[in-house]
Description:
Chain A is α/β, with parallel strands linked by helices. Chain A has ten helices and 15 strands. In chain A, the strands form four sheets. Chain A has a six-stranded parallel beta sheet with strand order 5-4-1-13-14-15, sandwiched between helices. Chain A has a five-stranded parallel beta sheet with strand order 7-6-8-9-12, sandwiched between helices. A two-stranded antiparallel sheet of chain A has the order 2-3. The mean pLDDT of chain A is 96. Chain B binds chain C through residues 86-87, 90-91, 154, 158-161, 192-197, 203-205, 208, 222-223, 233, 237, 240-243, 263-269, and chain C through 86-87, 90-91, 154, 158-161, 192-197, 203-205, 208, 222-223, 233, 237, 240-243, 263-269. Chains A, B, C, D: This is TIGR01459 family HAD-type hydrolase.
Amino acid sequence: MTPFASLLNQYKAIFFDAYGVLKNAHGLIPGVDQTIGRLVESQTPFYVLTNDASRSPDELAESYARLGLPQITAHCIVSSGMLAREYLQLKVNHGTVAYLGTPTSAHYIENADLHALPIRDVDLDNAADITALVLLDDEGFDWNTDLNKTVNLLRRRNIPVIVANTDATYPVAGSQVAVAIGAVADMLERIVGKQFIRFGKPDAQLFMFAYDLLRERMPITKSDILMVGDTLKSDILGGNKFGFDTALVLTGNTPAQDVDLRIQATGIIPTYVCESAAV
Amino acid sequence: MTPFASLLNQYKAIFFDAYGVLKNAHGLIPGVDQTIGRLVESQTPFYVLTNDASRSPDELAESYARLGLPQITAHCIVSSGMLAREYLQLKVNHGTVAYLGTPTSAHYIENADLHALPIRDVDLDNAADITALVLLDDEGFDWNTDLNKTVNLLRRRNIPVIVANTDATYPVAGSQVAVAIGAVADMLERIVGKQFIRFGKPDAQLFMFAYDLLRERMPITKSDILMVGDTLKSDILGGNKFGFDTALVLTGNTPAQDVDLRIQATGIIPTYVCESAAV
Amino acid sequence: MTPFASLLNQYKAIFFDAYGVLKNAHGLIPGVDQTIGRLVESQTPFYVLTNDASRSPDELAESYARLGLPQITAHCIVSSGMLAREYLQLKVNHGTVAYLGTPTSAHYIENADLHALPIRDVDLDNAADITALVLLDDEGFDWNTDLNKTVNLLRRRNIPVIVANTDATYPVAGSQVAVAIGAVADMLERIVGKQFIRFGKPDAQLFMFAYDLLRERMPITKSDILMVGDTLKSDILGGNKFGFDTALVLTGNTPAQDVDLRIQATGIIPTYVCESAAV
Amino acid sequence: MTPFASLLNQYKAIFFDAYGVLKNAHGLIPGVDQTIGRLVESQTPFYVLTNDASRSPDELAESYARLGLPQITAHCIVSSGMLAREYLQLKVNHGTVAYLGTPTSAHYIENADLHALPIRDVDLDNAADITALVLLDDEGFDWNTDLNKTVNLLRRRNIPVIVANTDATYPVAGSQVAVAIGAVADMLERIVGKQFIRFGKPDAQLFMFAYDLLRERMPITKSDILMVGDTLKSDILGGNKFGFDTALVLTGNTPAQDVDLRIQATGIIPTYVCESAAV
């Protein structure tokens, strides 16, 4: 078990997962405000890497401000929704993009200068102008009718399907979880038998997006960066594979009593295990 | 392409899939009433093997009567729901069984002398009396709230989960499909990481159930029986593996123009290919 | 933890897994000879259900005789190879059957009155007479050249592929394991993209085969039978699903210190947990 | 169908897959020498992106020189083996690295200043100094004994496993294929139940490696780059996801008569379809 404070001086930049590392259902994880404070003070750059396409970076930053962390600005946040937006800009760039998610999440489509249409408003008999489908959030649609409609749209139109959050569940109040759009995407993909395009940890592209932003600010190499996360198979696996050192914290998905067992069972080995990201 | 009529005399008993073989969204498949008529006339036993737990055998038989096939009685029908019921009788036999499905589908639980409780009425904080969960039908519950509740129930209680329909989709009006409870079950199973117990074609147990019923009526061997279906990976794969000869009909899931390609692609080889089950 | 002796009187018949229950790499599991002796004495029928197609039932029986258990005769043994043989008899019944395995394992093909040809002797340019492929054993062939040849045969010929052992590994001396033909089959199936036909626990068909043999001897129902095994996901899952009561013993794949964790993690719940099958 | 020549002027850089695009079992694909010639002449940068860890970039370049393409130097080649090497340098950096592959492929380990040890020479009872395992090539080891040994090593030592080629098969003479180390890796991963670290298309990291090399040479954005490949699910899926335009050529894995069907079936949609990469 490594004290998190001892790591801060060893790296030139820190990448954090959001949920289970900086915050949870009850608010801020105790002590992380001091960690962020120390990073700001020492002018150590940091980024928050999140599998979240339900809100824009501005809205995500506002939520941190409300929790007492105004230092986490929109410029510090890299969301899987931003990768979806980049894909739409580079690869779709015309027509109407159907989506599953809230109107708020549709920001990532509109921000790519595309017309966003909720699945519920798609006319299956006049769907020729639909150029892509994006799965953004598990809220904002009727799971039964709109998922059936999605399957039928994908049987008629051979269009790219972008999944902007690869997580299977996310924590809600108490110790409960909710099914995330990533699990719904897996179900739809198997049903229609097509290959969806997924963005989010552990995939390298989210790490690369943040790494590129950082390299524009300063000369840095992969070994200068520490990825901090609470989940072995997204944060740690993805960070390891990308070439970063990794710190597993025990304030979220990985409880202290299970940590050895899970590292052994999965073969996903963090560089460090820390009680939390507090200093 | 083999004329279906030429097969009737070659076998002592015929097993039919229901949807896409005997009926479809528009009613009876043309000509199958004559096939059933001829079987009744020649006293050739037949069974309908269906991955359907939404209705009791009595209700399924009534639906055939309404379509003009009163010869298909409840005694001719073997549904995957009947296997779920047998499991509950043999292996659960006490307590309250939670379910996803319509009140009609809960017949299979109540018929096993167990208390059936829709997931929506489960109290997660007082769930100690829940002894099993059964996934019966894709209707009768709220997909968002009740699936989330199901995941949380299975995180708290280590109970057997029975899936009474293994299909991923089922046909509805037009050429559209709807997501079936089998696909939902796959999603839930991956989320909770546990092993569910599945009943339905292509699994051997449904074929065995019908074969046992038949053997009680007459001496017969597997080579005396023809399985007729429209779907390679449930009807034909399951029939082949069980040791039956199999006939693929082109009135449902396998369109005539795709049949060669799909047999080649899947390696699932029916004994015969017939235009339909009409004579 | 239930004493195994207390179960013997509660059931009219006992089904045993072989490896890890009756024997292991060092010989007989201590005390199982007395269990078998008591069953013989009380005229309680028993069967050994094994995912093994490497040897004929006669040879398997001889191996028990050599270990001091001559009461386990060939008539007590139900192997997955016997299901492969039944499939070949019912569904192939002509031509040449290619195989991966030892000459000894080819018994199951020859016993079905078919010509058995090791993959190494197949001529890919004259393979029209090959009517099926059977994966019998992990020994008896060159893994590199013969697996490559198998892939190329299946790209040319659309024939049924029968897997006569679904296990991924089997124990060898010390605490080591070896890769079994079931894992090789999974690899080949994914490469060629076709659907193989698998026989062995946890699939219902092996349980049914033994259950049918028993029903020919005496009137019995599923609730009269206890399945005893050391592996949750084959013996216990399969036994449960078929409707038998199940006893997990801790002398093989499931060590005592892991049993609670594994039952919790998999959701596969045995009726009883016993230290061993000794009385 | 787009003439490949018409694309050359539209992009500032071209990325090629190797096998099935530039060469095949018979040598160079006709006309690609002129394509490479024209790129060199117009000073258009190009890279060859290959899922190949069997040979070093120098050896790969020599093989192109022998085929008459000396313009494809080692600096133009990005192999999945180079990603494995980067991982070893950044994340392992001490101890002995066990491997499956030829001595030639072990170059990627030795080049990272690590001691490379073929699995055959590993002593399972003294394996504490083994810090990682790398799967490099399907040749150079005994598939039966060395794969069994690999499974037992991974049961004893919880170490990162790096897969330096994600392909399942590769073409050999005639129309035959051979099983590649990627398929073997999938089998081993399922057996040991651990998470391996895979490098190769369609994963973003190989594209990023080449994109980074290119960005060091000139200012360029993703939309300036065309990825050319013969395989939908590696070259085209990966190129699309990374944000490149993509051209599918019909000189390798995707035959002309299947192209529409496969694009429809997979939902992987290239920007262009071209007969070949010849001009």
